[in-house]
Amino acid sequence: MNKRDRDRQDKRDAKEVMKKENVEVIKSVVSKYNPDDLNLDKSSGKATTLVSYKRTTEVVKLILRGIRFTDIMEYCEAHWGIKRRMASIYYKKALESFADQFAAEREYEMDKHAIMLQDLYSKGYKSGDLNLCRLLLQDIAKMKGIVVDRVDVTSGGEGFVFNYKPPSSED
Q: For the segment 92-125, what is each residue's pLDDT rounded down to a tens digit?
């Protein structure tokens, strides 16, 4: 066997070892959860809302453990008898649950940050530091979604564009 073939064989062996380790990690992570609790067999048809919720929470737990997307897909196929498409839908629902949980916290943090910037602006204005005030106004504008393009120097300032994008309401 020449050097190239040995290298290829070593890579294949390393991949196989990595795959076995990943399977062991998945099994160790989900060993405390009994898939039989879901009351499923592979021919049960469409999942109920409760089963869907349980599957989504299990995918959330797998994500929080740091399991890779492809390994989660394989786990779903093996334990629930579903195809990758349905498993990816559960994965998407899990990610949406993260977004829902942190949406309120994000709004609070943005409001707090805006108040802090306004406070810094008033202190800078009182002290006469107008450069700081200008920078703070730029930060506030970026945070609120107001974008100001720079002046095009090559056209002598004729190319100034002010793009105002109103904040999107997600109600």
A: 999 988 887 787 788 888 888 889 999 999 999 9
Task: State how far the alpha carbon of 142 is from the alpha carbons of 32, 109, 110, 121, 131, in Å.
Answer: 46, 15, 12, 15, 17
Roughly what angle, to the nearest 10 degrees, separates helices 69-80 and 84-127? 140
Give CA–CA dist 72/59, Å, rounded: 7
Q: Contacts for 93-96 with beta carbons within 8 Å, 24 or more apart?
A: 93/52, 93/56, 93/59, 94/56, 94/57, 94/59, 94/60, 94/63, 95/63
Residue 107 structure tokens: 């709004």
- Which tokens sit at 52? 């869907």
